[in-house]
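Database export, one record per block. Field names are fixed; values are copied verbatim from the stored entry.
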Amino acid sequence: MIDLKKIPTPDQIKRLPKALLHDHLDGGLRPQTIIDIANDIGYNALPTQNAQELATWFRESCDSGSLVRYLETFSHTIAVMQRREDIVRVARECVVDLANDGVVYAEVRGAPELFTEKGLSLSEIVEATLEGYRLGEAEAKSQGKTIRVVSLLCGMRQNARSQEIAELVVKYRDRGVAGFDIAGPEDGFPPSDQLATFEYLRQENAHFTIHAGEAYGLPSIWEAIQLCGAERLGHGVHIMDDIDLSGPIAKLGRLASYIRDRRVPLELCPTSNLQTGAAKSIKEHPIGKLGKLRFRITVNTDNRLMSQTSMTNEMQQLVDAFEWTFQDLQRVTINALKSAFIPFEERLAIIEEVIKPRFSAISAE
């Protein structure tokens, strides 16, 4: 008997089909891969040559509660992604790892401008990434797992190359690039700095999301939505600053109401948000309240290496903290597919042919 209102077991959560909208390619490397490439290219700055110790170092360095220090750990992963073959390898392994975690659809983002130190062009970086994704999909298929991965290209807010990256999104949108994003430090680099680029993307009918409301508050969210026209919010966790929970009934401010009414998707990343200080614990993470208030929430990993996490782990923590049921997990999974940057027919097919049937089958066990 199908019962979506019961709580899934850890094994069932592992086997559920998952959809992921917010995952950084350079934040999800296998520790051993970092070590292998570092040794091959003569990069001697790693804190250890032991894969498990390296994984622990990344996690502990990112547990500081500071987004600035969190971002500093990327110097190591970026250093080992400067050759074409290494980008292909990292992208391929990313897809395989996600498929092994039950992910059936993923949008993985990366900033091409970060990988040009050894002479690769932006186009070569995009093509290497897409090649890795296709190889990963094929490898997963050979293991009996089906996954679709598309690329989001990021411009770094503190640099001046967003227009170039946006033009690459348009150039490669029929070859596996689904959209655009800006990443990097929020404070001091508001979304409106990139306004001309977002206007270009809108004119080209191209999709984009914006990191906003992670380390900075409501002004960043307001600019991303009202000035720049973001379709989704990367994190957006600080929308809670516009919700009054002091009384028996939650009172939403005008911005929070607008985002809920317009069904603007929130790309929430619980473990990562704890590391950057946006929440103190999973039980205190706004995702629980936002879900009850029926915002369009999605669950994401952000940086699997830095957070030592997976979609299974994120879902398990939410089940433990909020007693989420199959129904809750299915809702956020369908939310993600509804909010994906691939065509409507493809989103619908994954929902109707993969998500709903497998949720029903697993919940009926």
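Remark 1: The chain has a mean pLDDT of 95.
Remark 2: The CA atoms of residues 181 and 321 lie 30 Å apart.
End of record.
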